[in-house]
Amino acid sequence: MSAVLEIRGLDKRFGGIVVADAIDLTLSAGRVVGLIGPNGAGKTSLFNLVSGIFPADAGTITLDGERIDRLKTHRRAARGLSRTWQNLRLFPSLSVLDNLMVGPRHYPGEKLWRLAFDRGGVRRREAETRRRALDVLERTGLAAVAKTRAADLTFGQQKLVGVARALMNESRCLLLDEPMAGVEGHAYETMQRVVRDVAASGVAVCVVEHNVAFIRDLCDEGVFMFAGKVLARGPVADLIADPRLTELYFGT
Amino acid sequence: MEYIYTLVILIALGVVLASSFNLIIGYAGLVSIAHPVFYAIGAYVSALLARDHGVPVPVAMILGALAAMAASIAVALPSLRVSGDYLLIASIGFQLGLLEAIKNVSFTGGAGGLTNIPPFLIQTAGREAYVALVVGVAVLTVLLTRSIAHGPYGRALSAMRDDELAFAALGRNAVAMKVAVFALGSGLAGLAGALYAHYFRFVTPEQFELLQSAAILTMVVVGGIRTTWGPVVGAILLQALPQAITFLDLPVALLGPLQGLLFTGLVLVFMFWRPQGLVAAGEFWRPSREAPDVGRP
Question: How many CA atoms lie within 13 A of B184 on its CB side?
Fold first, then answer.
């Protein structure tokens, strides 16, 4: 089980507010880690720090042994780090299929010189990406809405599109920010299966989620965060059973 | 007949300017109105190289376009790295500054303009050949714009306009794409400038001022931003209209301001009655027809 993403001593403060305090965390290939903790614990901030939305004050982040903490967001993603967003961030003017088509991290159709001098290559890659996108849509149960505008779907379907788009990225490490919030019924099982399949393909997965049942059923390990600190880690069932953590979570 | 040729050339150059500006402000969503300065760079660089340095005109034209492209990268790269909003300020500053410089140095002919620009094609193949050349460039520009906008590149631009952060988090370099589109659009404007210069054989800094910015913006907005044919319709309308008013028996002192009023008036009217322009773009990005149809069993 090899480490894919390693976070060491990560610190971040906004004025007096501590969002990350000496965080150490390792994500390994094929494993799903669940981040739990009350609102404001710094879970989404940790995702933002790792994906480079804002820079950390101190600490290192390595992806497959190479440091990425000084790189811009797009360079980190190009190295193999993908994420989803709590508030979706789909491309509303694109169809579901086209949202996925923008997913792959290296895409030759997005270089102007290739459009001029390598049209055959671009066309081949476009067809190949389309096949992959349709396959991912099939697996995520979205094939029927491939041509629908992303903004016209139900919230649960949109969450799945966000995950499907991230899957097109073929990353080494996948960060899922509240994939289950607002998702009900059929999409619940689909999401479980999809995340498990990704992990099984050797991707390191980290999930922020308030749905405790989802985390418990899915994750190999849980990490409890509070006030920017990692307080405990271990099997999710143990974390849930810990009265000290439950008290912090519910604030009683 | 010469009048018709001139009008056709002006319309075709308008199409090149409006279509290339549509790439920048429409498809890439970059806020800049300094398009005429790149038009000017193309015109001046090509004219000076051909007139004073003996460079063959076709080569000078290409160098003019490349100079416009290089200048646009120099303006866009630093400002876009900071934020999209800075591009507007940086590019207007560049436009006003460069035109002021052209007015005040002697080798450009100063405020009086650059004269005796060597002609091209007209002497050897006739005016018709030059008209065909300019119309050809206009057609190619429209086709190029369409293939970019409705191919994978346009899809990526659409995604970038929707959500730049999500776009970056998929491994896409939004700044590089913006600079690339800005450079391509500006290079085309430079080519239009060179084509203008060797036909009319006289350019002045005045014609690349803010009135020209307003004209090109109006062509795109009134015609229909983010559409293939909108800038074409807009260019025809806006090049033909000023010509039409010259037929009204008005004093010359009134004509200039009247054109300005016409542009702003048109934009205002369209803002209220038809904000999407004459040719309306859907909010939904569509691939070109040649793309294989999917989603059906």
Answer: 25
Domain residue limits at B129: 2-208
If asked whether residues A164 and A236 sit together in one domain, one would say: no
Domain count for chain A: 2
Query: In the listed set A170, A201, A234, which residue is the last one of a domain according to the structure?
Result: A170
Domain co-membership, A175 together with A162: no
Q: Which B residues in the span 168-187 are in contact with A, Cβ-Cβ below 8 Å?
A: 168-174, 177, 180-181, 184
User: Of B55, B296, B20, B295, whose CA–CA distance to B145 is shortest?
Assistant: B20
Model confidence pLDDT, tens digit, residues A135-185: 999 999 899 999 999 889 988 889 999 999 999 999 999 999 999 887 777
Q: Is residue B230 part of a domain?
A: no
Distance CA A154, CA A142 (A): 11
Last residue of some domain: A121, A152, A170? A170
- The structure tokens listed for A227 are 């006030």
Answer whether A108's CB lies under 8 Å from A121's CB.
Answer: yes
Residues A72 and A181 in one domain: yes
Q: Say if residue A112 is in the same domain as residue A144.
A: yes
Dist CA A134 CA A142 (whole Å): 9
Bridge partners of A232, per DSSP, are A224
Bridge partners (DSSP) of residue A221 are A33
CB A29 within 8 A of CB A42: no
Question: pLDDT (tens digit, 9 = 90+) per residue, B25-59?
Answer: 999 999 998 999 999 999 999 999 999 999 999 99
Neighbours of A154 (CB within 10 A): 13
Q: In this complex, is the C-beta atom of B253 within 8 Å of any C-beta atom belonging to chain A?
A: no
Total structural domains within chain B = 1
Say which residues have a Cβ less than 8 Å from residue B76's Cβ, sequence separation at least 6.
Answer: B30, B87, B90, B91, B178, B179, B182, B183
Q: Is A101 on the interface with B (CB under 8 A)?
A: yes
- Closest CB from B161, B168, B283 relative to A74: B168
C-alpha B286: how far from chain center: 24
Is the pLDDT at B84 greater than 80, yes or no? no
- B294 lies in some domain: no
> In a mutagenesis test of the B interface, which of A98, A158, A171 is the best target, namely the one with the most B β-carbons within 10 Å?
A98
A85 within some domain: no
- A252 lies in the same domain as A128: no
Separation CA B270–CA B222 (nearest Å): 6
Residue A211 structural domain: 1-80+171-252
**Same domain flag for A103 and A153:** yes
Cα separation of the two ends of chain A: 38
DSSP, residue by residue, B221-251: HHH-TT-SSHHHHHHHHHHHHHHHHHHS---
- For residue A19, the domain's CATH number is 3.40.50.300
What's the ipTM? 0.91
